[in-house]
Amino acid sequence: MAGSGSAHLRPPGQAVLRAEDLVVEFPADRGRSVHAVSGVSFDLLPGETLGIVGESGCGKSTTARALMQLPPPLSGSVRLDGVELTRLKGEALRRTRRRLQMIFQDPISSLNPRRRVRDIVAEGPRVWGVGGDRVDEILEAVGLDPATAATRRPHEFSGGQCQRISIARALVLEPEVVICDEPVSALDVSVQAQILGLLEDLKERYRLTLVFIAHDLAVVKNVSDRILVMYLGKTCELAPGSELVERPAHPYTRALLASIPRSGLGLPPADQLISGEPPSPVTPPSGCRFRTRCPKAAPRCAQEEPEMRSLGGDRWVACHYPETETETETGTAPA
């Protein structure tokens, strides 16, 4: 049975990927722990793109690595087509990872500088004995000419081209789910648009399911069917992309949207919706973790942690005083 933090999950069996109540902690000084991910839950239908967004240090990339079991979460569940990954070890886990591939943030450092492109892309198929004849096809699919690119090394390519190589390396193994961990944050804006368009084309061509992680909500909203907003290891809001952008319910989501230049949403300036720096994940605030920066914080926010609550349809928010359409129109806070 789903816990209070996973009430928004679909019934088991519908989703290709299902993460439930993920907890990831790392040791800190004086016997304390870094609370990197604290009870995050989400699922993905086949062919869906889930965007995960939040400030640096909110736990996005740690969540991505927990899905890959790198390292496994301290507690919680990760199921791929119903198979519980947290219980797999050794060879069984390695074989399952073939179906769950990852594209990393830094396209240059993620590639072996001593190897030629053909060897980089063909390494996975050689290990698993699958897809070895698809290297040229995949290179062409990501916009690289096999005749000229395959024999060159990563340092001979631009950052955008290296990311295309990274994408090819992930896709050649025919994965079901691809986790994109800030795949365009290290690229120029014009190159970002090219890579985003490429991912959309490849998603349709190869029937992929994507987890797309970024700190820039302006990027995430253009590629995601649904968006999950994280703050200090917790889920703030989860909603279809268009609805989250047009009707943000959580104060933190509103602040992120207000920080987008020329968003056209008529929101107050971001510095009126959020202030100060995020608290330490070693000693997170009691109750709502966003309360120390939230203009709507009340005593209840310090005493009681908000659970995910439905706003109707597929919209969910973890806030005691979520923004409502009435409030947005009148400028008043809920009683």
Task: Name a few traits of the molecule.
335 residues, alpha/beta, Rossmann fold, eight-stranded mixed sheet, four-stranded antiparallel sheet, 13 helices, 12 strands, 32% helix, disordered C terminus, ABC_transp_ATP-bind, P-loop_NTPase, ATP-binding, nucleotide-binding, ATP binding
Give an overview of the whole structure:
- By secondary structure, this protein is α/β, with parallel strands linked by helices.
- It has a domain at 13-99 and 175-250: P-loop containing nucleotide triphosphate hydrolases (Rossmann fold).
- The protein is 32% helix and 20% strand.
- The protein is built from 13 helices and twelve strands.
- The strands form two sheets. An eight-stranded mixed β-sheet has the order 6-7-8-3-9-10-12-11, with helices on both faces. It has a four-stranded antiparallel β-sheet with strand order 2-1-4-5, with helices on one face.
- Helix 3 packs parallel to helix 6 (159-171) and helix 4 (135-141) crosses helix 6 (159-171).
- The radius of gyration is 21 Å and the shape is globular.
- The two termini are 33 Å apart.
- Residues 326-335 have low confidence and may be disordered.
